[in-house]
Design brief:
Helices cover about 30% and strands about 15% of the residues. The strands form six sheets. An eight-stranded parallel barrel has the order 1-2-5-10-12-13-14-15. The protein has a five-stranded antiparallel sheet with strand order 16-17-18-22-20. Strands 6-9-8 form a three-stranded antiparallel sheet, with no helix packed on it. Helix 13 packs parallel to helix 18 and helix 14 packs antiparallel against helix 15. Bound molecules: alpha-D-glucopyranose (GLC) and calcium ion.
Length: about 575
C-alpha cells in the first residue's frame, strides 16, 4: 500500500448546530467551533469533519443545500469560515466539509428554475419523469418514508427524491450538472479544505428505466435501495469526480457508502480507489431492523464482535476504513453497544479502546469523548429529526403502542446524537445562553467537559491518553500499519486482537472483557519473554498490577468491563 498523509490521523466529527453557540440564538456556530479548536487539538485530533454548514432550509438539518457557495446564516459568514480554515492550519489541523451531491434542496435555484421550465436546461438537472397510468413512474419508497416521487405541478411529470421531498435528486447522467458540481468542489478545495466527507454517494447512479420492485411493505411500495443495489456503473461517475477534483489536490475523502457490492472494496478504497476511505458501518447495519426501528434485533456480543473482526480482516491489505462508534445518524454508542452493567465510565473507556486501536482511521463524534448517551423523551413532539418522526409512525402502524414507539425512538433516533454538546453543568450546558434548538440531555449536570477535563480518571482524560498512545512515536507505526489479528476468539465475552508490525517487530495486544465474570488470559509468549511484557494502558489504571501478573505468571486477568493494551 502506498503511504498517504492521512493514514496516521485521528478525526473528529462536529455537528455544527449542536457544538457551541456563541450568540445566544440556541444554534451552534462557526465562532463556537473556532473557539474550541484548542480543546480538539489537546484531545489529539488532526482532522475535523463538519456536517453541512452551507445555506439550507434545514428540512434535513443542512443535508438539503440551497446554495453550495454560501455559509448558512445561522452558522455565520464566509469570513468566519475562512478564519476557521486559517486557525485550523495554524494548529496543523485539517478541515473536511460534507459533500452532499446526490440531491440538493428544493429551494436551490436550479430546482426553482426547473419547476418554472420543466423541459428546459434545469429540468435536465433532475429526474423529471412522466407518470405511468396517472401514477408515479415506479413504486419506490423514499428513505424517509412515502413515495420517492412527487408530482411536478402543472405537468404529468414527477421528480425523484430518494430522501425527503424537499431533497430532489440530481441527475448525474447530465454532463452539465457534473461540470457544475466539479467546479463547486474545486472552489472549496482552492480555499484550502483538506477534503470531504461524501454523503449518500452510492445513490447517484440510477437505473433510468426506473423499474418497480415487488412491494416490501404494507404501503405497497418497495424501498428505493432495491434499485441502487441492482444498478451497475456507479464507479464510472466516482472515477470521473475524483479525476476532475480530489486527485488534483491530494484531498482526503471519506465516503458514506452503504450497499457496496462485496468485491468492490479495492475499487472504492484501494491505492487507486475512488476515495481515500469509507466508513465501516458493519456493526451499525447489524443492529438495524429489517422493517424499521420497531423490529431492531439485538445481536449477541459474539455476533457483534465477529462482524467487526470480519470487516477488519476484509479491509487490511486493501485500504483504510474509517472506524466509528457513532455519528449524527446513529444513536449514542455507549447506549447501544454496551450492556447495561457496562454503561458506566469503565465501559465507555473499554469501548473506546478497541475502536481507537483497530486498523483504520478513528473518527470520534462530538460528545463521544465524554461518554454522552441517548436521551429519553416523553413525547414525539420533542423530537426534531425527519426520519425519527417517520419511524415513530411506522412503529405505530406496525401495531406498537405509543410507549413502545417512543422506546424505539429512544433506542434508535438520530436525535440521540444531535442533542447539544455538554460543556459544563451551567444552565444551557455551556452550549448556549439562550434556548437550545433541541433540548439538552438532562444528564449534562453530571456528564460534561468541565467536570471531566481535569479529572485524571475521566472518560475525556482516557480518550486523550488513548489517542496519544496511538500517535506516540514508539507505537504509531504498529497502530497505523500493523496487521489486525483476532485473539482469544473462543472466549465468549472477550474482545481482543493483536496489532502486529513486521516493520518494527512489535506485537501489541488489545483485550477487553465485556462479560460480568473475571477472565484470565494466558499470554502467548515465547519462552522467557515474560519479562518483556509492558502494559501500555489499562482502563482502570491498573497498569502496574497487570504488568506484574504478566511478568510473573505469563497471564492477565480482566474483570468485568476491564480493558488492557500491552506489548511484548
Ligand atoms: C446521509 C446523512 C444523513 C442525511 C442523508 C441525506 O445519510 O448522513 O444525515 O439525512 O444522507 O442527505
Ligand atoms: Ca449561534
Amino acid at each position: 500500500m502506498k503511504k498517504k498523509w492521512w493514514h496516521d490521523k485521528v478525526a473528529y466529527q462536529i455537528y455544527p448546530k449542536s457544538f457551541l453557540d456563541t450568540n445566544g440564538d440556541g444554534i451552534g456556530d462557526l465562532k463556537g467551533i473556532i473557539s474550541r479548536l484548542d480543546y480538539l487539538k489537546d484531545l489529539g485530533i488532526d482532522i475535523i469533519w463538519l456536517s453541512p454548514v452551507y445555506q439550507s432550509p434545514f428540512v434535513d438539518q443542512g443535508y438539503d443545500i440551497s446554495d453550495y457557495y454560501k455559509i448558512a446564516e445561522e452558522f455565520g459568514t464566509m469570513e468566519e469560515f475562512d478564519e476557521l480554515l486559517a486557525e485550523a492550519k495554524k494548529r496543523d489541523m485539517y478541515i473536511l466539509m460534507d459533500l452532499v451531491i446526490n440531491h440538493c434542496s428544493d429551494r436551490h435555484e436550479w430546482f426553482q428554475k426547473a419547476l418554472a421550465d420543466p423541459y428546459g436546461k434545469y429540468g435536465g438537472y433532475f429526474h423529471f419523469v412522466k407518470g405511468r397510468d396517472g401514477k408515479a413512474p415506479s413504486n419506490y419508497r423514499s428513505y424517509f418514508g412515502g413515495s420517492a416521487w412527487e408530482p411536478v405541478p402543472g405537468t404529468d411529470l414527477y421528480y425523484l427524491h430518494m430522501f425527503a421531498k424537499e431533497q430532489p435528486d440530481l441527475n448525474w447522467e447530465n454532463p452539465e450538472l457534473r461540470e457544475e458540481i466539479y467546479k463547486m468542489i474545486n472552489w472549496w478545495l482552492d480555499k484550502g479544505l483538506a477534503g470531504f466527507r461524501i454523503d449518500a454517494i452510492i445513490n447517484i447512479k440510477k437505473d433510468l428505466s426506473f423499474p418497480s420492485f415487488a412491494p416490501d411493505g404494507e404501503d405497497g411500495l418497495a424501498s428505493c435501495v432495491k434499485m441502487v443495489e441492482k444498478v451497475n456503473g456507479v464507479g464510472e461517475y466516482l472515477e470521473d469526480i475524483k479525476r476532475h477534483t480530489f486527485a488534483k489536490y491530494d484531498a482526503f475523502t471519506v465516503a458514506e457508502v452503504f450497499n457496496m457490492k462485496d468485491d468492490e472494496l479495492a475499487e472504492f478504497i484501494g491505492d487507486e480507489g475512488h476515495f481515500s476511505s469509507m466508513f465501516d458501518f458493519s456493526a451499525h447495519t447489524l443492529m438495524q431492523g429489517e422493517n424499521g426501528w420497531h423490529d431492531v434485533r439485538r445481536p449477541s456480543f459474539k455476533e457483534w464482535r465477529d462482524t467487526i473482526f470480519s470487516a477488519q480482516k476484509r479491509v487490511q491489505g486493501i485500504g483504510f476504513e474509517a472506524n466509528i462508534i457513532e455519528n449524527h445518524d446513529e444513536p449514542r454508542g455507549a447506549s447501544r453497544f454496551l450492556p447495561e452493567y457496562a454503561q458506566n465510565e469503565a465501559g465507555k473507556k473499554m469501548l473506546a479502546t478497541a475502536s481507537i486501536l483497530l486498523y483504520g482511521i478513528p473518527f470520534i463524534y462530538q460528545g463521544q469523548e465524554i461518554g454522552m448517551t441517548n436521551c429519553r423523551r416523553s413525547d414525539i413532539s420533542e423530537y426534531d429529526d425527519i426520519s425519527t418522526k417517520d419511524q415513530y409512525h411506522e412503529a405505530l402502524r406496525a401495531g406498537c403502542s405509543e410507549a413502545q414507539a417512543l422506546e424505539c425512538c429512544y433506542e434508535n433516533s438520530r436525535d440521540n446524537a444531535r442533542t447539544p454538546m455538554q460543556w459544563s453543568a451551567d444552565a444551557g450546558a455551556g452550549f448556549t445562553k439562550g434556548t437550545p434548538w433541541l433540548s439538552i440531555n438532562p444528564n449534562y449536570v453530571c456528564i460534561n467537559v468541565e467536570e471531566q477535563r481535569n479529572r485524571s480518571d475521566s472518560v475525556l482524560s482516557y480518550y486523550r491518553t488513548l489517542i496519544a498512545l496511538r500517535k506516540s512515536p514508539e507505537y504509531k507505526e504498529t497502530f497505523t500499519y500493523g496487521r489486525f489479528v483476532p485473539a482469544y476468539e473462543d472466549e465468549d465475552e472477550i474482545f481482543a486482537f493483536y496489532r502486529v508490525s513486521e516493520e518494527s517487530s512489535q506485537d501489541i495486544l488489545v483485550a477487553a472483557n465485556y462479560g460480568t465474570a473475571p477472565v484470565t488470559l494466558n499470554l502467548e509468549l515465547s519462552e522467557g519473554k515474560n519479562s518483556g511484557v509492558k502494559v501500555l494502558l489499562s482502563n482502570k489504571g491498573k497498569e502496574r498490577e497487570q504488568e506484574e501478573q504478566a511478568r510473573k505468571d505469563g497471564s492477565i486477568t480482566l474483570n468485568s468491563c476491564e480493558s488492557v493494551v500491552l506489548t511484548f
